Amino acid sequence: METTTKTDAINTTSNACSYSSLHQAITGIIQGSRLADAACSLAIRHAETGDLLYGKNEEDGITPASSLKILTAAAALEVLGENHRFSTAVFMDGAIEKGILHGNLYLRGQGDPTLRKSNLDNFAAALAKRGVKEISGNLIGDDTWFDADRLSPGISQEDESYYYAARISALNLSPNADFDTGSIKVDAKPSRIGQPAKVILPSSAAFMEVDNRAVTVPKNESNTLLIERETGTNKIIITGNVPLGSAGAKEWISVPDPTAYALFNFQLALAERGIAFSETSKILAGKVPPAATLLLSHESMTLKKLLVPFMKLSNNSHAEMLAKEMGKAVYGDGSWNSGLRVMRSFLEGFGLDTDQWLFEDASGMSHTNKITAAELSKLLYKVRFRPWFSHFLNGLPVAGAPERFIGGTLRKRFKTGSAKNNATAKTGTLNGVSSLSGYVKTKDGEWLVIAFLTQGFAAPTIPAIDRLVEAIAQSRQTF
Known about the structure:
By secondary structure, the chain is α/β, with parallel strands linked by helices. It has three domains: 14-83 and 304-474, DD-peptidase/beta-lactamase superfamily (Beta-lactamase), CATH 3.40.710; 87-148 and 258-300, CATH 3.50.80.20; 183-254, no CATH class. 27% of the residues lie in helices and 24% in strands. A five-stranded antiparallel β-sheet has the order 2-1-25-24-23, with helices on both faces. A five-stranded mixed β-sheet has the order 19-9-7-4-20, with helices on one face. A hairpin with a 5-residue loop joins β1 (39-46) and β2. It is globular and about 80 Å long.
C-alpha cells in the first residue's frame, strides 16, 4: 500500500526501504541548500511500481511553470493521437478565367503552429502554375477554427510583446524551425558613433512599424539596448546605447495580430509569383463560405514530431494551441475553457485527483497555476504504460546532451557527472519559480520518477535541484 505524507518519511514498501541511503542523501542536500528556505513540493517514485520513495511537502500546491506542459503533452497524445496533423487550406468563391480569379481568395487556418512562409510560397507557386495572375476580390483570412481570445489568463503586460507570450490564433505563422509562432526576430547592431543603431529585420517585418531610438556609442560604454513592442500596437521600439564593436542585441517580438500577419505574408508570397490584386481588393478577416472551392491544402508534421520542439524548447504557443485543438476535437469549441476541460477529464480518466490540479492555461505561464509533486509524479508514472509513451519520452529534454533538439532546455545543465544522458525531464522557470520533473536512471539501471517544484526563494534553487538529480543518478539499492 502506497503512503503519502507531508513529511520526509520513507514509504514502507520494500522498494522504498531499499533506497534508504538515497533518502539520507536527499535529506542532506535539502538541509544544506537553498531548498531549506524555499517553498517546495518534492516527490520521487519507483517508475515500475509507482511506490513513493521520498516525499517532502509532496501534497502542497506549488506553481509548476512549464512542468505543466507534461500534462498538456500527455493529454494531447491521448486525445488527439500521436499522428494528429493540423491543416491549412486555400479556397476561392469565384472562377478563374484568362488568368483572373474573379472572386475572393481565402486562407483558412486550423491551428497549425508550424506553418511557415515557405508553405505560403508553395501555395502561391501552385496558383501561378494554374495560370492565376490577378485576383479581383479580397484576400480573406479564416481563423474561426479557434475562438477570438488571443492571450491566456496570467499573461502580464510586460510579457505581452515577447515571443514566449505570443498571441494565439488558428491562422498563424512561424519564423523558423523552432516554430516560435507569431513572432519576428529583431536584431540591433552598432553602426557609427553618434548614429542610430543598425536594425536588421526579415522581409516579413514590413508588417510592423519600427521606431529606432537606439544610438551607437564608444566601445567602452555599457550596452543598454532594449527591444520591445508597444502594447496593443504593431510598433517595435528600440532604445538605449549600443557600444561600437559589440554584438548589439536581438529579440523575438510577438506580432499584435497573427491572422493579419499571416495574410500579409501570403500577399507577399503571391506578389513574388507575379500575382496581383485589384485596386479595390482588401485584406480582411472572415469565414470561408460553404460553397467555396478548395484549391490547395497543407498538413503539418505529426503531433509525435511536434513534441520535440514543443517540449525540448518549452514552446508556450504550442501548448496553448494544443489546448484549443483538444477543445475543438472533443467539444467542437476551440477555446481555453473547453481545452482545459478536456485536460481535466484526462486527469480524471487516469485516476488523478483534479482538486490538486489548479491551472488556467496549458503552458504554465500563469503564477496562479498550482499542482502537487505527489500528483505530478503519479501522472509521470501512469503515462509510462500508455502506447504513446515512447513519443512522450522522446519529447523530454535529455540532461547534458548538447544538441538543441535532444538536450533542449537541459543542454547546458549536467554537462558532467552521473546524470548526464541519464535524466530526461521537463524544466519549468518563472520569476521566483523553478521546477524539474521527469525520469532519472540510477547506477543499478532502474528508472525513478521525479517531481521537484520550488517557488518563493530568495536565490535560485536550480543548483540544489541538480544536486538532487545527481544524487539519484549515483544511487544504488541497498538490501
